[in-house]
Specification:
By secondary structure, the chain is of the alpha+beta class. The chain contains 3 helices and 3 strands; from the N terminus they run H-H-H-E-E-E. Helix 1 packs antiparallel against helix 3. The radius of gyration is 25 Å and the shape is rod-shaped.
Length: 141
């Protein structure tokens, strides 16, 4: 064996180990973000489904079924706030925002996710957002 080639295999193994550890860190961080995004989407869907049940009975009595089934904006906000309180134990930092337009409610779920193995020089957290839109139950002939 030539004297100038000693230790070259060791350098290759160290290089491959560094690349492998970097790939594992990326996979773990991406998995954390994907799982947080799915959880935020689930919370937005659940809050939107609960919000769709909050009909504005006074508007329904005054305008009848011709205008569809309008949602009560205050009842929708209370329902989404209740849903957020119950979701905080499973998803700390979850923020649910809702907008109501007639018979349509849109819930936006936002959460900051700490990256478990953030690489040096990269951000240690990221924000995930999910949106769910729901219409009050339809009334047909």
């Amino acid at each position: 064996m030539k004297r100038d080639e000693e230790g070259s295999v060791l350098l290759l193994i160290i290089g491959f180990a560094i690349v492998l550890l970097a790939m594992v860190a990326v996979v773990v961080d991406v998995s954390a973000v994907v799982l947080a995004k799915r959880a935020a989407a689930s919370a937005a869907d659940g809050a939107a489904s609960a919000a769709a049940q909050q009909l504005d009975r006074a508007a329904l009595l005054t305008s009848g079924l011709d205008a569809g089934l309008p949602l009560d904006p205050e009842a929708v906000r209370r329902t989404v706030a209740d849903y957020q309180r119950t979701s905080l134990s499973a998803q700390p930092g979850l923020i649910l925002e809702v907008t109501v337009t007639g018979a349509v409610a849109t819930v936006t779920a936002t959460r900051v996710v700490r990256l478990p193995l953030g690489a040096p020089g990269s951000p240690s957290s990221t924000r995930v957002t999910a949106v769910a839109t729901v219409r009050s139950p339809a009334v047909g002939p």
